[in-house]
Structures are given as C-alpha cells and as structure tokens.
Design goal:
This is Quercetin 2,3-dioxygenase. By secondary structure, this protein is mainly beta. It has a single domain, classed as Sandwich (Jelly Rolls), CATH 2.60.120.10. 11% of the residues lie in helices and 41% in strands. It contains two helices and twelve strands; from the N terminus they run ββββββββββαβαβ.
Length: 158
C-alpha cells in the first residue's frame, strides 16, 4: 500500500446515474485490499437496488439523511452513522434530505473503484447541473455491472 494524501475535492470523479463518485483510495493504491469512495447524492437520488457478489461494503454518512434498503429492512442513516452491507445482500440507498448528502463508501476487496470509473461519465463539471441522467448512462450501468459481479435489480416502487 502507498502512503498518500488526497485533499478535499481530489481524486478521479465520475457521474454514475445522477450521483458524483470521487475515488479517494483506489485498489491500485491499497494493493487491492480496499477502495474508499466519496459520493455526493442530490435529493431524491441514489442507485437502483443491486447485489455485490465480490465485495463487502460500508457507508459512513458525512452529511445528510439516507434511506437504506438492505434485504427486507429499511434503515434511516443520518450524519455520523455507519452502515455495513455484506456481499450478496440486496441493497440501495436514497437521499431523503432536502440538500446534497455525502457518504464515504468503503469496499473490500477493491474493484468497486474500477467499476465506477468504467460505468460512470467523467466529471469535468461537478456542479449539480451535471447530474442529469441519460438513457445511455443507465444502459452503460446495466451493461458493465455483470463484469464486476454486480446484479442490478428492478427499482423499488416508491
């Protein structure tokens, strides 16, 4: 593993179906042990339900309020909360606050960073105006997910 310092706002950033993912520690930097990703999620946004077959995942809420679906449970996670998700669990999250929410995602082993970089659209502009989701964005997510051992499920009804 390399010693490194990434300042606020540093790291490769991509838009993935409306959310901004910034790689803070890549698998290449950690010898494949883990990846850490900061995600900024606009109000009402979040990924569709999905299952990771390769990695365990955890969320630390930096700011905001999120509804987290894990298998048959619905959790509310607020600033300072920590949520762990075992691989093979069906999960999703949604920002239920009125402003942009932010979380740190820890995934072990690494690989989720490569998924986001391939599935996402390079964030040359990190303002919310760039958070629009196109049909091409959705299709790319569906096409690339199996390569990384991720099954995207049909969105839950609100």
């Amino acid at each position: 593993m390399e010693n490194a310092l990434k300042r606020s706002g540093e790291g490769p950033s991509v838009w993935v179906v409306g959310d901004l993912y910034t790689i803070k520690a890549s698998g290449a930097e950690t010898g494949g042990a883990f990846t850490q990703i900061e995600v900024s999620v606009p109000p009402g946004s979040g990924p569709p339900p999905h299952v990771h077959h390769r990695e365990d995942e955890a969320f630390y809420v930096i700011e905001g309020e999120f509804e987290v679906h894990v298998d048959d449970e619905v959790l509310t996670a607020n600033t300072g909360d920590w949520v762990t998700l075992a691989k093979e669990s069906l999960h999703s999250f949604r920002n239920i606050g009125e402003s942009v929410g932010r979380m740190l995602i820890l995934a072990t082993p690494a690989g989720l960073d490569d998924f986001f970089l391939e599935a996402g659209r390079t964030a040359t502009d990190t303002s919310l105006d760039s958070a629009t989701v196109t049909e091409e964005d959705k299709q790319r997510l569906l096409d690339i997910s199996p390569k990384y051992g991720i099954d995207i499920k049909a969105p839950r009804e609100s």
